[in-house]
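Appendix B. One record, verbatim.
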Amino acid sequence: MKLNSAIAAALLATGVYADDASKVESTESSSSVAVEVPTFTPTTIKAPFLEQFTAGWEKRWKPSHAKKDTKGQEEEWAYIGEWAVEEPYQYKGIEGDEGLVVKNAAAHHAISAKFPKKIDPKGKDLVVQYEVKLQKGLDCGGAYLKLLRDTKALHQDEFSNTTPYVIMFGPDKCGATNKVHFIFNHKNPKTGEYEEKHLSAAPTASIQKTTELYTLIVRPNNTFTVKRGGDIVRDGSLFDQFSPAVNPEKEIDDPNDKKPEDWVDEARIADPDAKKPEDWDEDAPFEIIDEDATKPEDWLEDEPLTVPDPEAQKPEDWDDEEDGDWVPPTVPNPKCADVSGCGPWSKPMKKNPEYKGKWTAPYIDNPAYKGVWAPRKIKNPNYFEDKHPANFEPMGAIGFELWTMQNDILFDNIYIGHSVEEAEKFANETFFKKSAVEKALEDAEKPKTEDKPKSPSDLKFLDDPVLYVKEKLDLFITIAANDPIQAIKFVPEVPTAIGGLLVTIVALVGIFTMGGSAPEAVKKAGTDAKEKVKDAKEKTAEAVSTGAENVKAEVNKRTTRSS
């Protein structure tokens, strides 16, 4: 017992030294790690429209001063929301990289920029790509863009919710609604009217404070792809994944066809020939008294269910003349708690075996049934077939027309063009470069959660010194009972502590037997012993890896017992 205590003390000293050393290494490594933020460099990529909000952006982008069309509403809304171009304050991924920022919460914002030349996507890939940074998150609001139809009436000062657009694309969230919109306006070739086609089961938007990249690709073969952060989240065909559908049905129900009065559409009916059995008693009760029941032997028939509360006291301000006689409140009778019951006993009720309830005739197949009636089909007079819905109309401008409860939404690195490869190259220069930095900055802010040790070998001395010593010593003794050599290999801390303890004992013996300072012979013996301990420690450490596999089963047992 005394030896175990001495070894434990030596392990404490060894553990403190080892943990101090690891702490220094950890501090040195963490202090050397720093997030390197790159500096903004304008891209050299060319596109029909490419915006990084560099110098002169005010000449391209103009806020709207129009009033929002609110038909059917008494209130009148104006686009009073302000815009600015500035660097992000939340997780800055590139130094000097500025973006267009929504400055006001709970306000209507509208701003647009005309394209140098109209963009006609007919017969080409159309690629729409831009970054969104929700610096304050997003509880309710939009962060989508609109590609506006190129018309003579397209005036930036009058840009509003009624301005005709070709495509609306981007995130939108409010309450349970959270989606990435892809809506395109489709022109009916027969009537010339436009109808919005909404992507069904739209993918969810990424609500985070780091930058997110949204990409839309529409191809001449009428297929599309939606990407978020460079990953495909939705793709398919313009023909079958939008509501309402691009092309109407060839046939429709005849609006003039009416169901005949004698049409029978009841598949089953009550059997008209069925008769109630003579022995069917509709008046029999559901429950009857159980005549076979007997009173339990421990039933206290003379005991009431409740008794006056013995601990209740008459209030000091109680006036018998005004309030009447005071009666203490009642509580459940404690004598009834451990018996079958108290008070007058009566036989319980049981289910009546003769009960049948109200009789009804069984159902049979209706011999007059003709099936479910449906009006006849006729040719759709408004039918048309658009084989190329991807041939969108020419676009003359881009605009953000938004309402949001959160401000400081930042837009940047907008690409509108026809090259998927160039858009990806642009994303590599901008989004993916800043994204890695932003995520590193975000991770640096998260609280560090250290993993709990899975086995004694994962324990750290400073986390719990007592547990550290106990587990190491118990593990050593358990393994040594079967194989001392493997115990030394797998738990080198114990033999190291024993060696240190022996050196200390030798030195102390020399000092107390010789008196004063230790003679040269004792000092030399102590020095030699230290060297041997050091050599043994190095050898045992080297043997840990080779001996670990042999004692893996034993360690698993110890881990299970300790957890």
